Amino acid sequence: MFKTLVFYGSYRSDRQGIKAAKFIIDQLQQRNHEVIFVDAKEYDFGILDRMYKEYDPGQAPAKMTELAEHIRTADGFVVITGEYNHSIQPGLSNLMDHYLEEYYFRPAGIVSYSVGGFGGVRAAIQLRSFLGEMGMVTISSMFAISKIGNSLDESGTPQEASLTKRFGQFLDELEWYEEALQRQRREKGTPY
User: Fold this and answer.
1) Which fold is adopted by the domain 3-188?
2) Where are the domains of the chain?
3) 72 in Cβ contact with 5 (< 8 Å)
4) Contacts of 69 (CB under 8 A, 6+ apart)
5) Terminal Cα distance for the chain, rounded
6) CA-CA distance, 81 to 57, in Å (whole number)?
7) Could you give the CA distance from residue 100 to residue 159 in angstroms, rounded to a whole number?
8) Any idea where the NADPH-dependent FMN reductase-like domain is (predicted)?
9) Model confidence over 55-111: pLDDT tens digits?
């Protein structure tokens, strides 16, 4: 069993990407993952002023401390992004920037989406660099959902069977990395 955090960064009132989040959470749970949904709107820490590590011990907001513990004990991450001006959502980057060392030596899978045909892949490419800089290993597969308004219904149910099949292959790769890096951290620790 893996503990997998699902990060989602939209603050919009009419959030289309929430359908992707529901789909991904369901698929992870079907494969017996313990899923923690990290919604930037729910964890609203405000614009980054102080990273978690910059607080004196015991002085960080309780919700920030809770999330730090979830990140530290996670086996991996799925990071969902829409595409804003060919880049990732500001709410997502702001939320994730509150942490750093907590992410180290854990894999991340990138899911992108858009209302158009490209599926947010330009944001996904930006996100790969962002996550790598934070110490995560990003899996080579990216999962793009194009025309999200038609691809998933409001409950996150896919409208085409191919979406579930493609995501299964994506999860096969993520789980391989989760298991490998979990074993390395347990048996050999980390370089720092």
Assistant:
1) Rossmann fold (3.40.50)
2) 3-188
3) no
4) none
5) 26
6) 32
7) 37
8) 3-147
9) 999 999 999 999 999 999 999 999 999 998 889 999 999 999 999 999 999 999 999
